Amino acid sequence: MPVEHTVGPLEGKMTCIWLMVGLTALMQGQSEANAGSCKDLGVDFHRFFVAEGEAMVLSCTLLDPLILKSFAGSEYNISWYKNETGEEYTSGESTISAQNELLWFLPASLTDNGHYVCVLRNSVNCIKQAIFVNVHEERRNHCIHDSLVYLQQLKTLPNGNIICSDVKTFIERSEAHTIHWYKECKAIQNDDKFISYGNKLLVQRVSLEDIGIYTCEITFRLNGTEYKATRTIDLNVIGSYFSVYCEVFIGDLPASPLSNIYWVVNETEFIDPSRFTAGNMSEKPVSGGKLQQVQLIITEVKEIDFYTNFSCHVISGKGHSVGYFRLKPSRPSFLVHVGVFFSIILVFTIISAVIYKFFKIDIILWYRKSCHLIRKKQESDGKTYDAYVVYSKNNPWAPSNKAAQFALQILPHVLEKKCGYKLFIFGRDELPGEAVTDVVLKNIQKSRRLIFIYASKLYDEEDPLVLFELHTGLYDALICNKVKVILIELEVIRDYSGFPESVKYFKEKQGAVHWKGSFTGKYMSPSTRFWKQVRYLMPMIEEKQSDKNNFSLSV
């Protein structure tokens, strides 16, 4: 029996809503899929800084011929979105609007900080790149933006141009525009020094006095609304400009008897016209007559110009006259000398620090060896031994006891026989019949260093002597500060949980010397890195010590 189902108004609306939600999710999924397949070129190195309330325009950085090669022969579209929010921009009436390759901020606000992504896409390829924008708070009644300064420089030439950068788009796309210039926030008027044209400011007779902070302010109208943008330029003037006049007094003669005035450098005509310019002859009235003059302009003074003869020649019906001058280098100021001195000191200090860091041990060992004769002989510290050696003494001649082999054979062979140190090694140097505790206490106090040699197993539980030596020596080092500790690791140890806290403290504070060789002859040279580190940690030898107890190694 057929069942009739009547769809009510509410149910029809819900069906429509679910259909719209499904379509939206499908579109978002498709958009995310497309975005995920887009090649990301990261963030462009050119970052944009703008003051709050000023206009700004971004140009898509992907319209490069090399990038567009992959889009050749097919149409592509450009879209913009903000990376932080995902908001996509269109050509609407919002303060941020996209017009093909341009993204306009009319004007920028503090909330506009972030990365703006330009996406170049066709049916096959997709590329995107972000541009960073930083909007800083506007400083009221102040024309200089410290966070965005364009660095420009001019040479001391007759003329030079200061450029108002990154305003070309404003000029080309606007309905009308004007540009005003300021120096140190004071308005610049067109005169015989400055002339404003296009996006440039012509500076005539460039000199060191023109150094300073310049600001260009462009006001433009777009879609009937006026906007403004400013650029701050830090101008530096380089080179040395020089000019001089050759003046000839002709009195009050009704007609000049002069036929010619000209300049000569080193008795020859100007050999470098790009640097030397002679002006036209001019005449001006003075008291008692007239002066005729010709200006010599040196646009860039070089070292070869010093002590050169610059001659002014005057030829007339009455004869030939010559006047000349020479340029001398100005003396460097006291501040220049101070700056050079401290620069040399700084460079020397940095180089010395680097050398010392990498060659510290070699330098100290060389000093100990080379300066032995010039050092004053110090009073005796009452110590008998250079180091007391601690090692595991259970089965000292067993092949598995690496610490004992190293302490009884390798260490004395190098430090005593080859380097002249004197060591106390329990099991070799104590006298028969002495109490163990007395031997340990007495000889640790007579030693300048405590050398602790260990492998992966710190000490044997059946060898309490090692534990007693450690506690005695490390107590003396930590509390009394009379002996310094040298840790020698014979194996790579990753777990120190079984070590006493005092050993872990010294390991963390000063580290350990790691033995990486084998018990063979080539590893027993005092000049190897391991033995240099040990010798560096050992005390300085005042004079060659002889030790009758040196152990002869037989290999």
Automatic annotation (TrEMBL):
Positions of the TIR domain: 383-538
Role played: Counteracts the antiviral effects of host IFN-alpha/beta and key IFN-inducible proteins involved in viral RNA degradation suxh as host OAS1. Acts as a soluble IFN-alpha receptor and thus inhibits the interaction between host IFN-alpha and its receptor.
Complex and partners: Interacts with host IFNA1.
One GO cellular component term noted in the UniProt record for this chain: membrane
Name of this chain's protein: Soluble interferon alpha/beta receptor OPG204
Localisation: Membrane
Residues of the signal peptide: 1-31
Any one Gene Ontology molecular-function term assigned to this protein's record: hydrolase activity
Pfam family, one: TIR
UniProt membrane topology term: Single-pass type I membrane protein
Keyword line: Disulfide bond, Early protein, Glycoprotein, Host-virus interaction, Hydrolase, Immunoglobulin domain, Inhibition of host innate immune response by virus, Inhibition of host interferon signaling pathway by virus, Interferon antiviral system evasion, Membrane, NAD, Receptor, Repeat, Signal, Transmembrane, Transmembrane helix, Viral immunoevasion
SUPFAM superfamilies: Immunoglobulin (SSF48726), Toll/Interleukin receptor TIR domain (SSF52200)
Domain Ig-like: 50-134, 162-234
InterPro entries: Ig-like_dom (IPR007110), Ig-like_dom_sf (IPR036179), Ig-like_fold (IPR013783), Ig_sub (IPR003599), Ig_sub2 (IPR003598), IL-1_rcpt_fam (IPR015621), IL-1_rcpt_I/II-typ (IPR004074), TIR_dom (IPR000157)
Name of the gene encoding the protein in the UniProt record: IL1RL2
Family according to the record: Belongs to the interleukin-1 receptor family.
Ranges annotated as spanning the membrane: 334-359
